[in-house]
Amino acid sequence: MYKLIISIVPHGCGELITSAAVSKGAGGGTVIMARGTAQSNIIQLLGLGDTSKDIAYIIVEDSLLQAVCDEIIQQTGQKKKSFGVMFTVDLIDFIKAGGKSGQTAENKEDKMADNKYQMISVIVNKGYADDAMAAARKAGAGGGTIISARGTAREGDAKFLGMEIVPEKDLLIIVVPEDKCSQIVSAIKELPCMQTAGSGIIFCNEAHDFTLLGKKE
Questions:
Q1: How far apart are CA 31 and CA 21, in angstroms?
Q2: Cα(129)–Cα(144) distance, integer angstroms
Q3: Is 89 within 8 Å of 208 (Cβ atoms)?
């Protein structure tokens, strides 16, 4: 069984997270540059200021999860308060290039019924992530993280599907308490930028082990 550990920290600190994970047996990690969206007077889930961020993705076996998370918490414990956040996501399918599947839907454990957080992922045409975040904030979200991305549809696909393909995309990630998830998703769905076919998608995953990184006092 495998878990994905996601840590969101200030830009330039992603390697601190992956190094801590490797020291406890993880195979490595991937660091992606993004930006936070929180207002300066709000320190809430994934907000942490409107500045450049590193997102560290680390996949570990269940047997290593606790040790790796504990080491990340320890290594960031003397950093500034609200240094970042960390949470885990269940992996339904995990396939290593050149190898066999590490985990499949058939051998995945049942999800915990008492999960407290949800990770909302919103993919929209470039330039609309801030609109989605504004709608989410009005519905109760604290902040989010935006990643620049691109679509992979070909010109022929656009003609076949009868819709305009915009290659440049924004990926907005928001972690919220479970009881706020539905109202936030509904608010984003009502935006004008979500009314055209092919203009965006929204999906949600359970976020486990949510932890604030940095000094506790």
A1: 13
A2: 10
A3: yes
Q: What is the DSSP letter of 109?
A: P
Provide the residue count of the chain.
Answer: 217
- The kind and range of the H/E element at 213 are strand 200-213
Residue 205 burial by Cβ neighbours in a 10 Å radius (0-12, 13-18, 19+)? middle
Query: Residue 26 is which amino acid?
Result: A
Joined together, the tokens standing for residue 212 give 């604030």
Bridge-based pairing of strands 30-36 and 117-125 is unpaired
Each residue's pLDDT tens digit, 16-43: 999 999 999 998 888 988 877 755 444 4
Token pair listed for 131: 């609109």
pLDDT value, residue 95: 62
Q: Please, which residues have CB within 8 angstroms of residue 162's CB and are 6 or more apart in sequence?
A: none
* Local structure of 96: helix, strand or coil: coil
CA dist list (Å): 141 to 74, 147, 189: 28, 18, 15
**In the block, which residue shows the tokens 């009881």?**
179
What three-state secondary structure class fits 14?
helix
Token look-up 């066999």 returns 100
Query: Residue 168: which residues within 8 A CB-CB, separation 6 or more?
Result: 125, 126, 148, 149, 150, 151
If one compares 53 and 157, the residue with the highest pLDDT of the two is: 53
* Residues 56-92 pLDDT 10s: 999 899 999 999 999 999 999 989 888 999 999 988 6
Which pTM value belongs to this model?
A: 0.73
